[in-house]
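This section describes the prediction task in plain terms. A model, or a person checking by hand, is given the sequence of a single protein chain and must write out its three-dimensional structure as a string of tokens. No templates, partner chains or ligands are provided. The sample shown here is typical of the held-out split.
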Amino acid sequence: MCTGGCAKCLGSTLIPLAVLCTLANILLFFPGGKVVEDRTYITDEVWCFGGILGSGILMIFPALVFLGLQNNDCCGCCGNRSCGKRFAMFSSIIFAAIGVLGAGYCFILSAVALNKGPKCKTEGEWTYPFKAGDYLGDHTLWEKCTSPDNIVPWHLTLFSLLLVMSGIQGVLCGIQVVNGLFGTICGDCNCCRCCGGDGTV
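The expected answer:
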């Protein structure tokens, strides 16, 4: 597959992942699927907007750049017929790096939140009843949370999804870094077809 086509494929995959991460983060503002009376009852990591900012907004920009690479002019750039696509592929490396940072931000926050566990009502007060992820392997500990209902599986499911999806996003952006390097150094095969082997149309 040509470097431009590969980038477009990566971009089309990143868009739905960014949307899903944003939705997962929004749902975390409703512990157990319910509206809480006080914002302090929501797990701290939710307010860091890992899914909305890191794997959402910061991921949209690289995705849009990747999607547009196939349409960039590869036959002319400042009088040099070979630099158009190469420059576009080089710029995609920068945006891919931004994507890796955004995905990494969400991934780390999700891992911390999973290890920490949800904030819930325990013995009449709102606190973090779990330590060092002990609840992950012992479901009987989930009974420590008396409110909101089903807060532990809610927290576990959504942050696990964010962890997995941000991990996938990081890998895809990493692939584009390599793909962009090849495109910058070697050009794009579509350029050969549209411009001819000697760079002429």
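For orientation: The CA atoms of residues 92 and 180 lie 6 Å apart.
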